[in-house]
């Protein structure tokens, strides 16, 4: 799953951006200041960083410079300062793109996806298991020759399972990785597993998502 680090000291913005990105199938980490951002990026390297310019302590420009010394992950600078000198300073510090507040989430999402595409030119990560194929970049999923029409959240759950085939993932692990700390219905995991099974087994194919009693779910072929 693609991991995005959101660095913003405004809890409302961090919550809105994080919730929206999780809904689109991304794994989201958050940091509220420069020190936490640098520590998180070092300990759990993200695939992309959304970085606020105005941060307490170490400002966003310096954070960007330090991040750039240790990562090639795309950096999208998100800030209320939108003058030409500010944009130039942000790009010169190592940012790959610049988006001014207030912003439209759809534009943010489009920029995130464009940066991720440019970060891996010509490379579509393909996950496979049995006769199941999932293309991370294009969000295409096939069961043998049959294409599956999945929602963003269904895709995220299936991708999580396919990254750890035959491993058991608990309900709590799936909730944390897919929904994060946001509000969620108590039976959300069961609902989405059921939807995925309906689509994966629409032509009476063998079950691939197994329930491990008392433990969770696992992507494995039936014995």
Task: Choose one word for the global shape.
Answer: elongated
Kindly provide the name of the CATH class of the largest domain: Alpha Beta
The main sheet comes to:
5 strands, parallel
CATH level 4 superfamily of the largest domain: Response regulator
Number of strands: 12
Low-confidence stretches: none
Structural class: alpha/beta
Please state the second-level CATH architecture of the largest domain. 3-Layer(aba) Sandwich
Strand content: 15-25%
* Mean pLDDT level: 87
Task: Give structural notes.
With 223 residues, the chain is an alpha/beta fold. It has two domains: 3-119, 3-Layer(aba) Sandwich (Rossmann fold), CATH 3.40.50.2300; 126-219, Winged helix-like DNA-binding domain superfamily/Winged helix DNA-binding domain (Arc Repressor Mutant, subunit A). 41% of the residues lie in helices and 22% in strands. It is built from eight helices and twelve strands. It has helices at 11-23, 34-43, 60-70, 84-92, 105-119, 152-163, 171-179, 188-200, and strands at residues 3-7, 27-31, 48-52, 75-79, 97-100, 126-129, 132-135, 140-143, 146-148, 168-169, 209-212, 216-219. Strands 2-1-3-4-5 form a five-stranded parallel beta sheet, sandwiched between helices. A four-stranded antiparallel beta sheet has the order 6-7-8-9, with helices on one face. α2 runs parallel beside α3 (60-70) and α6 (152-163) packs across α8. The two termini are 28 Å apart. The model has no long low-confidence stretch (mean pLDDT 87).
């Amino acid at each position: 799953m693609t991991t995005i680090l959101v660095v913003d000291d405004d809890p409302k913005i961090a919550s809105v951006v994080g919730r929206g990105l999780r809904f689109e199938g991304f794994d989201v980490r958050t940091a509220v200041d420069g020190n936490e951002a640098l520590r998180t990026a070092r300990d759990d390297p993200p695939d992309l960083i959304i970085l606020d310019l105005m941060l307490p302590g170490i400002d966003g420009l310096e954070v960007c410079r330090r991040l750039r010394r240790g990562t090639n992950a795309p950096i999208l600078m998100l800030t209320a300062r939108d003058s030409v000198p500010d944009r130039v300073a942000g790009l010169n510090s190592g940012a790959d793109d610049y988006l001014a507040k207030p912003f439209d989430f759809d534009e943010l999402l489009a920029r995130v996806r464009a940066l991720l595409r440019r970060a891996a030119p010509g490379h579509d990560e393909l996950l496979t298991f049995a006769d199941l194929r999932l293309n991370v970049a294009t969000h295409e999923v096939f069961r043998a020759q049959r294409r599956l029409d999945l929602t963003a959240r269904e895709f995220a759950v299936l991708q999580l399972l396919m990254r750890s085939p035959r491993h058991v993932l608990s309900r709590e692990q799936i909730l944390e990785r897919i929904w994060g700390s946001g509000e969620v219905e108590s039976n959300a995991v069961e609902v989405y597993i059921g939807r995925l099974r309906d689509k994966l087994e629409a032509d009476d194919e063998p079950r691939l998502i197994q329930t491990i009693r008392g433990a969770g779910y696992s992507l494995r072929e039936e014995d």
